[in-house]
Amino acid sequence: MAGIPVNWLFLFLTSFLFLDLAISANTPLAKKTYVVQMDKSAMPETFSDHVKWYSSTIKSVVLKPEKVEDTDDEERVIYTYQNAFHGVAVRLSEEEAERLEEQHGVMAIFPETIYQLHTTRSPTFLGLETEDSTNVWSDKLPNHNVIVGVIDTGIWPESPSFNDTGMTPVPAHWKGMCETGRAFAKHHCNRKIVGARVFYHGYEAASGKINEQDEYKSPRDQDGHGTHTAATVAGSPVHGANLLGYADGTARGMAPGARIAAYKVCWVGGCFSSDILSAVDRAVADGVNVLSISLGGGVSSYDHDSLSIAAFGAMEMGVFISCSAGNGGPDPVSLTNVSPWITTVGASTMDRDFPATVKLGTGKTVPGVSLYKGRRNLSENKQYPLVYKGSNSSSPDPSSLCLEGTLDPHTVAGKIVICDRGISPRVQKGQVVKDAGGVGMILSNTDANGEELVADCHLLPAAAVGEKEGIVIKQYALTNSKATATLAFLGTRLGIRPSPVVAAFSSRGPNFVSLEILKPDVVAPGVNILAAWTGDVGPSSLPTDHRRVKFNILSGTSMSCPHVSGVAALLKASHPEWSPAAIKSALMTTAYVHDNIHNPLKDASTGEPSNPYDHGAGHINPLKALEPGLVYDIGAQDYFEFLCTQNLTPSQLEVFAKFSNRSCQHSLANPGDLNYPAISAVFPEDANISVITLQRTVTNVGPPVSNYHVLVSPFKGVFVKVEPARLDFTRKHQKLSYKVTFTTKSLQTAPESGHLVWKDGVHKVRSPIVITWLAPI
């Protein structure tokens, strides 16, 4: 397993905390938004409801203006939270916020955080459309009663993916509504889109009023991201779906019978935490069963992460929360959304690709990918002048990135231009080349992207190539003044091997907030995903793109997250009694770690085998997850006990203990004792500690009489002993415990990974294991 030195982790954490402190600096007089968590049980008897108490508390700290003409009549409270989270979002000066911290009933104050979006064939690839799966995922399943809340950029209701033909009435437990606004009326909701809401007060407080001529101040999606993710979760089947002829077939969501509730929190300037928090709070009250959140805003400790706290509250109410891991890979320690009660999803490829070729004047043909289709075509029988504006072939420089204003039309007109990836969006580089008179583009990966190829719907003939081939092409252009090339586009190809492969951009562990919690949890399809699209922008999302399509192909952990959300909806439909933790366990313990040629999963950035910091427990396997045999269940109090091991103060713990009777029972001797499906043993810096014992409890959800035996992979650095080595169940839902003892035999310079599997002849309940030594060697 690739090593991540412990001192590097410390340096990264120190740097991160320094940056966090640096960006938090603010002038004391300027107002900004704060999310304030209140202790609901602390409301004085003199108040009849919590909203009045919250308002009174805020008014008590507001500083009076010194001059009459400076009278501050603005409404300070912009949101009130009452379900997954209790408190308010409020505009305050820094001094007022400091005064508020001292008030009775105030548990915590969080500055506003800006989150960013983590920007078919996948049902078939996941086994949801095979003959064997017909009965398993039949329309008879009550998945029409499962409602998935999608917190994103809104929804384009006219998409055929949201057709409700044949759907049963909206479930009785649904309490949400269809908010109206510009270009969004009541009739845009139906039996598929059961609810739609907008949240913008936090955004407007920070950025000013939304220009309603440029943006829809309604649930309508003009970005496309939210429509794409919603359709991936639960889109109705659409035959003949494609993007300009690419990926032609039937597009459907993971849970086509489930309902969608769209919560629009993202705007042109970003997604603000106060709006996201309000959406989570509202979604829980509305009655969603699953929350799909393809957003990320960096990493902080659990008690300083407002989304983590809101997700904890949602989990307490039985809601499964799936979040994208982020697109910060292949750098280590790049994960977001790492709380153990959140299912953190990385991205992988499928067995479908969109090949293109670059034919050089030397006769050499280089493989690439592209989604280009347009009137501007290059002749395969003609060679075009080739130019590269960089100074060397191995590393990009400003002139090679094809940024706006950097290309001279006199030197690129009529030529194919080689552009390095980085800084600006990939499709925008093509627009720059087109504006300068170039006839085509070769987009070259750099060492940051390796050999992973992501297809784009370019505005001119263009193909993306890997780093190694890119260096060859650039070297040819730099050393030959008459270098030439042409491009060819080969459509859609299936059966790609090997697949899946962990995407290079998919964010990686370890989870430095808690090394004992292995993240990401799983990987799912997130590269070149076809799903519904907005009618407001073209497939490249560039303002100069006047093409309009009903479906688009996107890549990112934003795309992998809704795959897991949709499969979770299917599992909830089949097992309505399962907790969010049981659903996560089923997804993790049945995940696979070998590709379609039976080799270990590979990392696209290196071509080498990936490890649990890359793929978590592995790639999701929905059919296996339906009947996992055993699950590792975790309740809200168990998660709270984990927090009790995280060196949090009583006041910091209180933000998760909204109910006065939740307190530390100290039932976990080690944070690694949380009943997590993955096992992470962390040997401390004290080299004298050479033995760690961790506890686990499994619940039988398979046949009442089941007999399991354990298998553990060998490790170089430790001896592993599991007691007992057999688990004999006599009834369904019976719980049995075991312990795993790790004894150091030789300190390792890097973390070591393996697995533990419980087998009964039918089921294989697999847990990844990671061993980390913090002691210097």
TrEMBL record:
Region (Disordered): 211-232
Keyword tRNA-binding: no
Signal peptide, first to last residue: 1-24
Pfam families: fn3_6 (PF17766), Inhibitor_I9 (PF05922), PA (PF02225), Peptidase_S8 (PF00082)
Subcellular location(s) per record: Secreted
Xref: PANTHER family: PROPROTEIN CONVERTASE SUBTILISIN/KEXIN
GO biological process, one term: proteolysis
Gene Ontology, cellular component aspect: extracellular region
Family: Belongs to the peptidase S8 family.
Family annotation (Gene3D superfamilies): 2.60.40.2310, 3.50.30.30, Peptidase S8 propeptide/proteinase inhibitor I9, Peptidase S8/S53 domain
Name of the featured protein: Subtilisin-like protease SBT1.3
Domain Peptidase S8/S53: 144-602
Active site per the UniProt annotation: D152 (charge relay system), H225 (charge relay system), S558 (charge relay system)
Entry keyword tRNA processing: no
SUPFAM superfamilies recorded: Subtilisin-like (SSF52743)
Domain Subtilisin-like protease fibronectin type-III: 673-771
Keyword terms, alphabetized: Glycoprotein, Hydrolase, Protease, Secreted, Serine protease, Signal
InterPro entries found in the cross-reference section: PA_domain, Peptidase_S8/S53_dom, Peptidase_S8/S53_dom_sf, Peptidase_S8_Ser-AS, Peptidase_S8_subtilisin-rel, Peptidases_S8_3, S8pro/Inhibitor_I9, S8pro/Inhibitor_I9_sf
Residue ranges occupied by any Inhibitor I9 domain in the UniProt entry: 33-118
Domain PA: from-to ranges: 383-470
Organism this protein belongs to: Davidia involucrata (Dove tree)
GO molecular function: serine-type endopeptidase activity
Bias-annotated ranges (Basic and acidic residues): 211-226
